[in-house]
Amino acid sequence: MSEGWHGWDQYAPFYDWENARTMGRRDVEFWRRLAARTAGPVLELGCGTGRVAVPVARSGARVVGVDRSSQMLARARRHARRARLGPRLTFVRTDIRSLPFSSHGPFGVVMAPYGILQSLLSEEDLDATLAAVSRATSRRGIFGVDLVPDLPAWREYRNEVSLQGIFRRGSTRARLTLVETVRQDRPRALTIFDQEYVEGHEHTERRHRFTLTFRTIGVRDMCARLDAAGFDVEAVLGDYDGSAWDERAEVWLIVARKR
Ligand SMILES: C[S@@+](CC[C@H](N)C(=O)[O-])C[C@H]1O[C@@H](n2cnc3c(N)ncnc32)[C@H](O)[C@@H]1O
Known about the structure:
The model has no long low-confidence stretch (mean pLDDT 95). With 259 residues, this protein is an alpha/beta fold. It has two domains: 8-149 and 217-258, 3-Layer(aba) Sandwich (Rossmann fold), CATH 3.40.50; 151-214. Helix 1 (8-21) crosses helix 4. The two termini are 36 Å apart. Strand 8 (190-200) and strand 9 form a beta hairpin. It has helices spanning 8-21, 28-35, 53-58, 70-82, 123-136, 219-228; strands spanning 42-45, 63-67, 89-93, 107-112, 137-147, 157-169, 172-185, 190-200, 205-215, 231-237, 252-258. Strands 3-2-1-4-5-11-10 form a seven-stranded mixed sheet, sandwiched between helices. The protein binds S-adenosylmethionine. S-adenosylmethionine is lined by residues 4-5, 8, 46-48, 51-52, 67-69, 72, 95-97, 113-116, 119. Residues 4-5, 8, 46-48, 51-52, 67-69, 72, 95-97, 113-116, 119 line the site of S-adenosylmethionine.
């Protein structure tokens, strides 16, 4: 049985390479502005390699990033060291379904960027996580949730080359190709990405295979779940500049406040 946290350790060496070509930094300014709404510390759920946590901390916030993948966190720690952020940015290896923070927790802002809540593959996992986030959020604290839109509408395909480029590993350079298969499990609202990264050196080729699974949650459904977990929805946005959401929006972004 696959779990949403599976695959990320194997993905870690390639995550920054892929994201430089896909998501990039287009959401970072939004998270910076959200973090600026508290003087206290900010929590990022599923901080990965620090793509969001590092620039948010660099602009002055105190940030705690949590992630279950030790390989993603190792990269995040390296990026934080390079940015000389010191104690302003700390990392905790934990599962977001059981955050180690107690009632009326210390966080004035909690960030859930880039579909992290879609790594929760069952209703029970989502419920457990929202309850844990509610405990970790201070009274009147803000919870921002970014959902990857409409994954069930993605077409299914097998073994397509979706990215190619030069990849640096330490001092060596390789040709890197991502060969991808996308499957839909519609009854369970799951979208499954089988990834094969082919790392080509002069005389050798290494193949890295892993699977990532995501569950789609609609915007209205997520708003209802946030309400049930003790949050009032303040805004539903359709881009990172603050435009209102509609059914065709390319970004599904919810900002909620703890009651
Ligand atoms: C899409 S990445 C996002 C990384 C980063 N926030 C960003 O925007 O680039 C999702 C991250 O969530 C982590 N993750 C998935 N399920 C998790 C869980 N149940 N508990 C903690 N972390 C989890 C993965 O290890 C991965 O690093």
